[in-house]
Amino acid sequence: MDIFSKLGFDLNSIIQYVVNFGILFGALSYLLYPKILHFLDERRKIIADNLQEANSLKEVFEKKLAEIEHEKQQTHAALKAEMEASRNLLETRREEMMKELEGERSKMLEEAQKQITAQQNNLIKETEEHMMKLMKTIILHIVRNKVPEKTIQESIQDSWLDYKKTA
Amino acid sequence: MKDLLTALIYDILKFLQEEKQFFEFNQKERKSSLEKLAIPEDLKTYLVETSAENFQNELTILVNLLEKGSTSFRVAKGEIFLAIAKFLTGELAQHMDDPNEKMAYAGKFAPAMKDFLHNTYEEITYEIEKMLELLVEDNLTIFVQTARQIPSELKADIRKNLLKKYPLSFPRFSVNKDLIGGFRLFINGNVTDCSWLESINVLTSLQYINHK
Fold it and tell me: What's the rounded Cα separation, in Å, for the pair A152 and B181?
């Protein structure tokens, strides 16, 4: 006991404190703790409900999100397919147009070539005809004016002899 | 032409009046008897070969023809017409081509022939062609175009040759200086061109050049 005294502890005080504490504890346990516990339980329940609700909401959201994501993916895929189809159509149209243009171009080139050839031929023909006319004029001038009368007379005789041989 | 043939008939009839027994002769006797008659050889040959009855019939047709022209019939058929056609396309054409050739005719026929040949070349040709239309069936139209006037020998040669090929044809000659040289022959519209102009046309044609 002395030791406690030496150390500064008073047993009575301690007992007093313990009793006081016990009383306080008992009072609190009887009056406050149940309410606090009830409140805590209520609170816990609310929190648990909230948590559950939050979880269910989360699940709903997640589900919704997944649906949206799925829809998004579907839409994306559809859009992509549509874009691909459009792209293909565009490409086909482009190829068709290119082919058409190429055909038109070839046709025009062919036509132009034909016209050029025809014009060349015409030009050649005209030149040849002109030359022939010129040649004829020169020959006619020579034979009409420069051939002696005797030769012309003989030509009739010669032609007749030739005709007699062949006829 | 009418006068010419009338004179011919007159001479023949006069001869037959003198030679009453002519158609009773044989051909040899007839030939020797006909030496007195100076008419075309083709008619003499006809008289040698024909009979009195045939001659009488054909003479009637010929007189009708001379009187009525082409209205009585289209083409005359008979030996006498053939002989006349031969004379027109042969001896007469020859005298027409060469007026200087001596004629061995006498009687009424000689002056008639001279008168006939005094007509222009075109008139004579027209008369002969008109008569040939009556005498020859499917009469051919033959034109000979030459670059210059040709000598009568050449004309005769051409005529003789064409007559051989186309009997009883009467080639008509004309000058076309545009031919330059040579000649052109038209037979019923078909042309045989042996002229220089044709040769020049052929030589200067593009087909000829291209063909070469």
Answer: 5
For A136, nearest residue in chain B (alpha carbons): B204
Report which secondary-structure segment, H or E, holds B193.
strand B190-195
How many A/B residue pairs have CB atoms within 8 Å?
A: 66
Compute the distance between CA of residue B159 and CA of residue B128 in angstroms, rounded to an integer.
Answer: 15
Partner residue facing B194 (CB), from A139, A149, A159: A159
- B149 in Cβ contact with B177 (< 8 Å): no
B161 contact residues in A (CB cutoff 8 A): 164
Task: Per residue of chain B (212 residues), give pLDDT as tens.
Answer: 778 888 888 888 888 888 888 777 888 888 888 888 888 888 888 888 888 888 888 888 888 777 776 555 555 567 888 888 888 888 888 888 777 777 777 778 888 888 888 888 888 888 888 888 777 777 788 889 998 888 888 888 888 888 888 888 888 888 988 888 889 999 888 888 888 888 888 877 766 666 65
Nearest to B57 by CA among B43, B76, B30, B38: B76
